[in-house]
Amino acid sequence: MKFVLSTLVLLAAATPSLAFVRPSQSVQRTAPTLNMAALPEVNIGIFGGGTVGGGIVEIIESKREHFEKMTGKSINVKKIVVRDLDKARDFTVPEGCVITTDFDDILGDDSLDIIVEVMGGTTLANDVVRKALSNGQDVVTANKALIAANLPDIEALINKVNEGKDEKVEFRYEAAVCGGIPIIRSLQSDFVGDDITMISGIINGCTNFMLTAMDVHGKSYDEALSEASDLGYAEADPTLDVGGFDARSKLKILIRLAYGIDVEEEDISCRGITDLTKLDFQYAKMMGGSIKLIGVAKAVGDGKVAAFVSPAYVTQNDSLYAVTGATNAIELISKNLETTTLIGQGAGRYPTANSCINDIISLAKGDKTPLPFNPPSKDAKFVNNYESNFFIRLKYKDALGITRQCGEVCEKYGVSIHSMLQNPTTKSDDAAFAIVTEKVPLSSVKKFCAEIEELDWCQGPAFYMPVLREDWETALV
Amino acid sequence: MKFVLSTLVLLAAATPSLAFVRPSQSVQRTAPTLNMAALPEVNIGIFGGGTVGGGIVEIIESKREHFEKMTGKSINVKKIVVRDLDKARDFTVPEGCVITTDFDDILGDDSLDIIVEVMGGTTLANDVVRKALSNGQDVVTANKALIAANLPDIEALINKVNEGKDEKVEFRYEAAVCGGIPIIRSLQSDFVGDDITMISGIINGCTNFMLTAMDVHGKSYDEALSEASDLGYAEADPTLDVGGFDARSKLKILIRLAYGIDVEEEDISCRGITDLTKLDFQYAKMMGGSIKLIGVAKAVGDGKVAAFVSPAYVTQNDSLYAVTGATNAIELISKNLETTTLIGQGAGRYPTANSCINDIISLAKGDKTPLPFNPPSKDAKFVNNYESNFFIRLKYKDALGITRQCGEVCEKYGVSIHSMLQNPTTKSDDAAFAIVTEKVPLSSVKKFCAEIEELDWCQGPAFYMPVLREDWETALV
Question: Which ranges carry the Homoserine dehydrogenase catalytic domain (chains A, B) (predicted)?
């Protein structure tokens, strides 16, 4: 059976190209010094010969001897499925490696031990992954959308395939969340005896790049987005980035690993960066910090987990503060380890390929990962509300009684005020002030904002975001 | 054979006690819900029933069912060797677990699968580890001093024991470097296809706590040290911390893992924090940053690796800047991943025990780690010199011609000046100014300082440290 390739063409074309050839890694396969005849082979088929696929091939070839020493095996890329045979490759095709457009060339080939899926999309990719696993082949994927949409189904399939068998298929997806940051394996192996109470972080490189450009370099939102797109940091549809939806997909996967819960993505409260203004950055600076788009999930007791994606104010002392540009960071709070932070490259050819390589070598040396490592919890429940200090920014036209009215509405909804900020340099036609609240539920903030927006002096919608600082711990309820 | 316990007594007594009972984890073993009869057992013997040993037992007991689900095995602590049977334990001894003072109770017991060494020291601990490995038992240790002193010997022994055998012994030491930070496994599994060009970080919690106290809280050196000791952050001999020697031991281990080189600790240039003054922090603040004690190792080309331990100036934008208190951080620069940073707890009961637990569960589920993962490189060479921007602070008594003379000596040794700093608020009896250099070799800075120290106006020894900032990359040559 041949898959129809038109969808794949679209998907591949939609992937931003970060490809470039690094001469030092784009080398011809050299004759190994070890006795090849004695080494068992690990044969690999790759779906996708683009940015990431090319990076994987380059690393395997340039590290051939090193991998042989480490695993005692010869790692060979035997087949690569591409959408267009005639397209020039930005890597050297290994000797003896077949380039094909026919999916069945790989899927029907039992001599392949590991199938690597780096073509993207959720339809064909899902077919490929399921067929390979059903066929008893280990699978490595870098496909975030696929994992976010289908991890439970894939795990169920694997359990079925493995039932009663000694030789179990393995499934790895380190590259699917935050590219080069080893967060998947860390969640699978560094917290086995621990309880994660909170997982939060900067998990979208495009928006962090934009926020840095706006905060540090004074760029406008449009300039920042255009620059991010030019550099290949934005998704084909940048709404996925700026709307917070890409971060939400990743957060869903992290929640599954940290808490064993399957959450519907739509259930996670999600606000992107589109409503942020220069003024918000000015106020953040006055308060001694900056603004980051973060995803947060927290165990809030009674087996409940809450989560959100939102811009948030962070102080200079927060480990997320110094995470600038397209860099990603994940902070884990846990019972044993207290705070652990991982910072690294969330995307790009070599960071993503590096994660795939780690998975491939781990499989080649025979490591097993119980699946799922944290079994889905039937007791755990997802709740969509949280409590935090909030930053609320209100645009206004000058009038008498603003402070009094704010105070009254705050009181009505139990929103206790920590401080008020007003920058005297603000122009009068763009006047705005900000309130920082004590710890209050999101629901109260929403009610407060709705009522304030009805008042004469209030110009346009109110903007609010949680405030993260050491002494003001954000609590999700 | 019975080991003489007097040395062990001394060692155990010298270890600062961080022990406290967390009620939620100090529980009695509960009846497992899985069918015990069907589960294979993994039996553990522990040397050391103190802070870390107690934490390990607590976690194993509180996570019993979870571990059974994950590994399909029953994990049982069967024996614990302690120095004093009569001492009250800060954990609940599991049902059926024997507490003994007789080393041979464990070492002669073939029913034990994993030997955990958390008693510290390098003499008896080395004996224990070697005997267990020779006996075909897997070993987990948290012993930094042991690993720094004996890793190559232990690896050689393991290779000998494993030769020609299908069932190989495994050796794990995640807890030996930076407690709860999973840096060992990260170096063994996240960089398998990568080339690490630089590894640097804050790898001593005691000194980082002291530097934070001095910088942020304005404490004196003596106040900061006394507070660190009270909180259990200091080694029994705090010279190991403040002199940089503890950091150097860890750096030696990291160099071995990142570059496959065995370095003599004494060959690594090492300066502690004892010469730092309040003025240095004032100048660091003027420059917009702070001072951290860091360890750095860098591949400098031609198979050469250079390294040092020293206080260093870091900017606010450096991910190390926000790492305060007893927290540790390790930053890795590599070809594929660019920059990766791991931040976490470098010591303490549960962070350290958590790392031991990760090792134990990894062994229980049958993961294999090729040993050594990065084979020792015969070609790689260690060189003891480096190039950097430097901060040089000179105490002086007022005189004419200071600037001219500094300029002349700088010129003589090729030390190019980037900027000069002088705080006008400095008291005249403690007057000092600082020079920030362009990138120059350490050797030139030393010559410059030696000649300046001879001049009439120069009071006491010159203090110098490297300057780390994004746009001023420290190079080791």
Answer: 182-361
Cα separation values, A311 from A204, A269, A460, B71, Å: 12, 12, 19, 39
Q: Residue B204 to residues A62, B144, B150, B244, B247: CA-CA distances in angstroms?
A: 36, 12, 21, 8, 5
Give me the DSSP letters along B331-397: EEEETTTEEEEEEEE-SSHHHHHHHHHHHHHHHHTT----SSSSPPPSS-EEE---EEEEEEEEEB-
What pLDDT is attached to residue A16? 35
pLDDT at A355: 97
Q: Which two tokens stand for residue A162?
A: 């493995």
Q: Among residues 19-48 of chain A, which lie with CB inside 8 Å of chain B? A: 24-25
d(CA A16, CA A13): 8
C-alpha–C-alpha distance, residues B357 and B54, integer Å: 12
The residues, any chain, with a CB within 8 Å of residue B280's CB and separated by 6 or more, are B291, B311, B391, B393, B434, B463
Task: Give the per-residue pLDDT at A375.
Answer: 56
Give span(s): CATH 3.30.360.10, chain B: 194-344
Nearest-angstrom CA–CA distance, B268 and B336:
27
- Count CB atoms within 10 A of the CB of residue B414: 12
List the one residue out of A132, A121, A128, A46 whose CA is nearest residue A91: A46
CATH topology of domain B6-176: Rossmann fold (3.40.50)
Q: How far apart are CA A282 and CA A428, in angstroms?
A: 16
**Per residue in A245-294, pLDDT tens?**
999 999 999 999 999 888 999 999 999 999 998 889 888 888 888 999 99
Farthest-apart Cα atoms in chain A, separation:
88
Between these two residues, A72 and B43, which has the higher pLDDT value?
Answer: B43
Residues B144, B250, B298, B395: which is the catalytic one?
B250
Domain A192-344 matching CATH 3.60.120.10: the answer reads no
Structure tokens at A224: 């920042």
Q: What pLDDT score was predicted for residue B13?
A: 37
Q: Out of A193, A342, A353, whose CB is closest to B357?
A: A193
A288 touches chain B (CB under 8 A): no
The single residue of A131, A250, A252, A395 carrying the catalytic annotation is A250
**Cβ atoms of residues B63 and B94 within 8 Å:** no
Distance, in angstroms, between A417 CA and closest chain B CA?
A: 28
Percent of chain B at pLDDT exceeding 90:
66
Q: What is the overall mean pLDDT for chain B?
A: 86
DSSP string, A2-32: ----HHHHHHHHHSPP-----GGG--PPPPP
Is pLDDT at B426 greater than 80 in this prediction? Answer: no
Tell me the per-residue pLDDT of B249-284, one tens digit each, with 9 for 90 and over. 999 999 999 998 889 999 999 999 999 988 888 888
Residues 256-285 of B with CB under 8 A from A: none
- Give the tens place of pLDDT for each residue, B135-190: 999 999 999 999 999 999 999 999 899 999 988 999 999 999 999 999 999 998 89
- CATH 3.40.50.720 in chain A: give the residue spans: 6-176
pLDDT at A1 over 70: no
Contact B337 A316 (CB under 8 A): no
Question: B194-344: what CATH class?
Answer: alpha beta
**Contacts B373 to A, Cβ<8 Å:** 70
pLDDT value, residue A42:
97
CA distance B331 to A52: 24
User: Where does CATH 3.30.360.10 sit in chain A?
Assistant: 192-344
Inform me whether the pLDDT recorded for A429 exceeds 80: no
B370 contacts chain A (CB < 8 A) = yes
B368 is catalytic: no
* B238 has pLDDT over 50: yes
Task: State the Cα–Cα distance between residues A175 and A185, nearest whole angstrom.
Answer: 10
Residue-level length of chain A: 477
Q: Does 3.40.50.300 match the CATH number of domain B387-468?
A: no
Please tell me if residue B328 touches chain A, with a CB cutoff of 8 Å: no
